[in-house]
Design brief:
mainly beta; Immunoglobulin-like; 2 domains; six-stranded antiparallel β-sheet; four-stranded antiparallel β-sheet; 20 strands
Length: about 300
Amino acid sequence: MYLYNMTKNLTNKIFIREEDKFIPMGHGIDHEANNSNHGKQQKHEQHSQHHQQQQQQHHQQLPISNHYNVNLQYDSITPEAGRQTKLILSVTEQKSGNPIREYELVHDKLMHLIIVNEDLSYFAHIHPTFEDHSESFTIVHTFPESGRYKLWIDFKPKGGNQTLVAFRINVTGHPIHKPAALVHDRKYTKESLDRKYQISLKLPEKLAAHNDADIVFSISDVEGRPVTDLEPLMGAGGHSVIISSDIREFLHVHPTEEVDHSWKGGPDISFRSNFPKPGLYKAWGQFQHQGRLVVADFNLKVS
């Protein structure tokens, strides 16, 4: 079950198909595209189809909404740690099988691809490219270690529903990732990954499931001076992804205030979220300053 938070209402409700039941976006499917189980009989044959095609591994996502199928391919039999993997993502009409060739921008991009490993120690938010006259999105990505990864794909066909869908894949090779349990470390000030900024996270006194919560990231330079000239990132003052420790709950949140392309702001960027269940979560904040991406992550406990 996933949650997708939006800062403004969508014109159309978003649906994901779970077996034969259609449920509003905010809930979804946990599709396993497990590339080690080619011969394993699936309970529902629609859930996963595996075959080799031109030396590419192919996975078909369970049909989502009442409109689309999503397919994930990569350019080798199995993605291998430390080596570039070309990811190919295509969307087709469920009924006709015709490829979707036109898309609308979602937060300034045609497609968002978010990748984490099983213990949330690795995170990537990237944007596949849709070439003119093409039927697929493509991007080259290097998985740093072997192990299990989960991919979330967010897109909106022209005139259609905004859609979120997920795959799980296995990555082979070395180094082998050694998972570590997520812990509530109560650390709410951290250096950015490039060690050039300090990011603090301000939370309500108590985070409670099913209640709206304002979480505020505050960005300073490494010496603690507030940064007041942040730049728009993906059409907003910042971006945040929050994922539960069991990697089943996914929250994709944007700031409570919209900005234009000429905006300069900071140091505080506020987000409103609603956690679907109690437990541990990991939150990533992404911001842009002087053309540089500023990223930090925090562990949260929700009661």
